[in-house]
Amino acid sequence: MIFAYCLIFIASLSGNTVIGMIVYKTRTMRKPINFFIVNMAMSDLLIPIFVIPTRIQRLYIDSWLLGGPLGQASCRLMTFLGDVSSTVSVESLVLIALDRFGAVVYPLRSPLIRSKLCSFVVLATWIVALAVNSPEFIVRKLVEHQEKLVCERNWNKVFGESSSSENYLLSYIVLFAFIPLVLIAILYITIYLKLKSQKIPGEQSANAQQRQQRERNVLKMAIAIVLSFAVCWLPFAIWLILFFFTDTMIWQTCGGQYFATVVSFLAIANCAINPFICFIFSRNYRSEFNKTLFR
Hints:
Blueprint: H1 2-25, H2 32-44, H3 46-60, H4 68-105, H5 115-132, H6 134-139, E1 140-145, E2 148-153, H7 155-159, H8 165-197, H9 206-245, H10 254-281, H11 283-294
Antiparallel strand pairs: 1-2
Helix pairs in contact: 1-2, 1-3, 1-10, 2-4, 2-5, 3-4, 4-5, 4-8, 4-9, 8-9, 9-10, 10-11
């Protein structure tokens, strides 16, 4: 477990940082889709910085290491920032799908999201993510229990007995997991049907063929990122629903704990996968990486 966490930590921290550096330094890469990929990369950096160290510490010590004001702040931030990361990633996936939809289905029109508006759109994704996940920041509190520090989730104490954390969780998963993935699937299916039906009369020029090949490669990269996110996060989302709406005794068994560990680890691993997808499917990212590495 420690080796796997350290591997994800190194791959995510280095890979996502390189993605950001490439787009920042290369003027030709400053396009809406790359801005959204960088936005996703920056949100993924929160996982190795804040989440993975806590997971490694829990393998050895079943107690929160820090006490006092710093301990209270870290208790609230660790889970909160992990949730913000996943929310920003989902929003970035939707924006990438919308960008590809506009580029393929309406190629002669101006982009749905222009480069000048990207900074405002990116900022909006973070504001929404911070606002939506703010309850999780509020309900966390570090308490001393049986001579050890425990980061507890006190939902009813903060919002009252009439409030339901299960309803909040279910609403969050529906709004920021299932609905976005369904919308993304619809957009990419539409894009696929559009590409399949395209028939350009006569022979294509070399430039037209190259442009079409680039569009297809970018589309493949975007779809691969979405599939990776769905494979890594949907099992975790389903587990959360089952955990809160089924008998908790099931998850205290060996099999239940093993399943919870696997789906949680899979969700964390997603932060290290996206940079490799970019390098595999995009020649621009590969060439700029080589220039950065050997410059």
